[in-house]
Amino acid sequence: MGTEKSFFSGQMRIGVAMIVLLVSAVNPISAGQIAGYWGQDVSEIKSCQSRGIKVLLSLGGATKNYGFNSADEARSLAQEIWDKYLGGNGNRPLGDAQLDGIDLDIENGRSAFYPDLGGRLREIAQNNNYKKLYISAAPQCPFPDNSLGPQAGKFLSTTLADFVFVQFYNNPGCDFRSGSDAVVKAYQQWTNGLPKAQVFMGLLASSSTTSSDKGFVESGAFKNSILPKIKSIGNYGGVMLWKPSSDGGSYATAIKSFV
């Protein structure tokens, strides 16, 4: 995620989650196949955490070749994540920095055994008296999500998620290309479907995050036309920005006092 790290390190009002690592693995995800990446000084993790920013390890992405073949594989990965990135004593790519949890950005339709991953990770953290462990999920805006649910057996059918960052972009049926009413309706489907979770609206931070990203809405239109409607919903959690440094932080600055 490149420059996102430095951007977040200087943002005092970012308070819910900072997703810093995108982990991809070959098929299936299993112990020993985590590809760790950190492009800058690990001290930035601790700087963010000292400001109250929760730093999460994001798993998945738009690539296709990942998933679990069994519950044992999922639980094995939970142990590896604990050992390398949370409170364990394994070979630690980030040194002594201890992340605050994981984010599931599962986009390939392979939904099996993610509840086993999350449940085992919570169990390990509780057994070791770890700090509060956060688990989030980042579904696409069509409800229900093909990979994460909340249909029976999928991750969001459980109560494991603390935060749900719904991606309201790159989905023409429910992103801003379909109009604000369609976006608000889709958001309400998510909040109704997950009444116990904090549901965030995920936005593109600029119209040029990447050439493939579509569904950008100007900050003024969002702030004036969308935000008042979704903030009144009981389990509204806030706003998630994808690539917030792509416009120099101006989008975050424009909305931060309103969200």
Automatic annotation (TrEMBL):
Transmembrane segments: none annotated. It is an enzyme of class 3 (hydrolase). Its EC number is 3.2.1.14. Residues 1-31 form the signal peptide. It comes from the Eukaryota. InterPro entries: GH, Glyco_hydro18_cat, Glyco_hydro_18_chit_AS, Glycosyl_Hydrlase18_Chitinase. It holds the Pfam family Glyco_hydro_18. Coiled coil: none annotated. Residues 1-259 form the GH18 domain. Keywords: Glycosidase, Hydrolase, Signal. Belongs to the glycosyl hydrolase 18 family. This is chitinase. It comes from Riccia sorocarpa.
